[in-house]
């Protein structure tokens, strides 16, 4: 099975990925609810997620930790702290580390499917064209190392970001 046959980019909401074992949180260092993806996941998971996160915080940029998913329709939440663009450096390596460490944790927990949001491209202001290239190249490059993970889905919130991710993935497949 090639990396590209295990990878898709769709428009949607990260809290509604009923058919995926794990969802990834674009977390903050304290692993608190906050806004964006983290706020949506904590609201949908319920207060037990916040309680489960507290002993694991703080985390550093590029790091990932895993918790149960509580009231979400998934088994696990993998919390990643992306780099704040212009603050945490090297931003490209830290963003790539998020995706790699999330896959590694997923493999360790024996999940067969993981859904990612576009880490760092909201409140953390990472330029989305560059973030998409790093996200997709990191996953494409490392999926062969993680054979238990059969499906990876990027869940993008708006149509423009979805098209960008889909075009970027297609350009890798043509190369
Ligand atoms: P970060 O702090 O890492 O930048 P954000 O949560 O602010 O994370 O945003 C990351 C990306 O996720 C942005 O592109 C944002 O539009 C998108 N996003 C926000 N809410 C959701 C959601 N419920 N599902 C999927 N993507 C979302």
Automatic annotation (TrEMBL):
Q: Which InterPro entries match?
A: Macro_dom, Macro_dom-like
Q: Which Pfam families match?
A: Macro (PF01661)
Q: Which residues form the Macro domain?
A: 1-173
Q: State what protein this is by name.
A: Macro domain-containing protein
What is the native source organism of this protein?
Billgrantia montanilacus
The root-end lineage is:
Bacteria, Pseudomonadati, Pseudomonadota, Gammaproteobacteria, Oceanospirillales
């Amino acid at each position: 099975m090639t990396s590209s046959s295990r990878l898709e980019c769709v428009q949607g909401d990260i809290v509604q990925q009923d058919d995926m074992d794990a969802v990834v949180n674009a977390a903050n260092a304290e692993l608190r609810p906050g806004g964006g993806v983290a706020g949506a996941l904590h609201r949908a998971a319920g207060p037990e997620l916040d309680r489960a996160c507290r002993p694991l915080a703080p985390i550093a940029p590029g790091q990932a930790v895993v918790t149960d998913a509580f009231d979400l329709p998934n088994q696990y939440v993998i919390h990643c702290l992306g780099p704040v663009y212009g603050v945490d450096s090297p931003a490209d390596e830290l963003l790539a580390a998020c995706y790699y460490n999330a896959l590694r944790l997923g493999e360790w927990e024996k999940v067969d499917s993981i859904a990612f949001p576009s880490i760092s491209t909201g409140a953390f202001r990472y330029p989305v064209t560059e973030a998409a290239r790093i996200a997709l190249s990191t996953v494409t490059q490392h999926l062969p190392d993680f054979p238990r993970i059969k499906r990876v889905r990027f869940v993008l919130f708006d149509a423009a970001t979805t098209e960008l991710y889909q075009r970027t993935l297609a350009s890798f497949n043509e190369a």
